[in-house]
Amino acid sequence: MRYLLYGVLSIFLSLIILPSIVIFGFSTHEVSVEKNLVLVEGGKSVKLDKLPSYEVIRVFITNQNKIEEMQLEDYVKGVVAAEMPAEFEIEALKAQAVAARTYALAKEVALGGKGCDLHEGVDVCTDPEHCQAWQSVEELKGKWGENFEKYYSKISQAVDSTKGLVMVYQDALILPVYHAISGGRTENSEDVWQKKIPYLRSVVSPGEEVASKYKTTVVVSQAEFVKKLKERQPSLKLTSNNILSEIKNIERTQAGHVKTLKIGDVTFEGKEIKELFGLNSTNFTFSKQKDDIVITVIGYGHGVGMSQYGANALAKEGKKFDEILKYYYQGIEIVKIEDLLKGKH
Ligand SMILES: [Zn+2]
């Protein structure tokens, strides 16, 4: 990436544009020469002569059913606190802060993002299944109890020490997806969402086994198993009482997650089975225990991008937040959002 410095010229110009900087709450004293920039892949071009005000974010608070405007950095604290255990290593929390900030800014309408498509005129919502989780200070007090001060100051330190830092790939904000536990290897984006995204590549993610949800099991009776599958696919025919012998052609991704499998005469996607039986991930195997089917699941979440438990394991090894992020998001750069907005790429 190329950074242009305007030196004396910028100081001179800053005197002229200072009033507008104050109006827009923009802290930089440098000016852009380029007037438009696409900051978000597939997003709208942003007119930089108007200095987009990105520091206030419009958030739809799902559990309160209301919209709130808040300072971006305060919002990021609420996301880190909601998305990652406060006991995690500080470098893992810092990596989470940069991921959370990048995600939010890539969604921000002011920067050309599409916003949260569930709620009009909103940048992000707090539904973890849709945008990213977020908790208010009040909720965190309830969650952490007497540890509130300690944990909130730790989260604040992680966010403040990475203030304004975002991840870019070819000068556009990335889509920094993350998940709890990959199960030992992360996924290629195209194996989960069809679209090949160059920085979302499958990487080994060691050290996750310490997570209590690394390996989980779901037990269902054979009758229940068949009933649920038939609810999804009424045409399903199972000819044997031995259900396991009817499960064939399991196709797995590079990370070991089930892409598709054939049960009886029907092909299911791994995702469908995950949804039907409430599994933590699509990395599963079947076994039989008397009349029950035991589904053993490895990992938690979609497996794409940064593994949060993997990030913590890397931090324990002494890796810094930027090394963690560059490991899980291949080929990215970490820059200050202000520098990106100065449009010198
Ligand atoms: Zn949303």
From TrEMBL:
The chain crosses the membrane at residues 6-26. Residues 63-169 form the Sporulation stage II protein D amidase enhancer LytB N-terminal domain. One of its GO terms (biological process) is sporulation resulting in formation of a cellular spore. The keyword Transmembrane applies. InterPro entries: Bact_Sporulation_Assoc (IPR051922), SpoIID/LytB (IPR013486), SpoIID/LytB_N (IPR013693), Spore_II_D_firmicutes (IPR014225). This is Stage II sporulation protein D. Signal peptide: none annotated. One of its GO terms (cellular component) is outer membrane-bounded periplasmic space. The gene is spoIID. It holds the Pfam family SpoIID. Keywords: Membrane, Transmembrane, Transmembrane helix. It comes from Caldanaerobacter subterraneus.
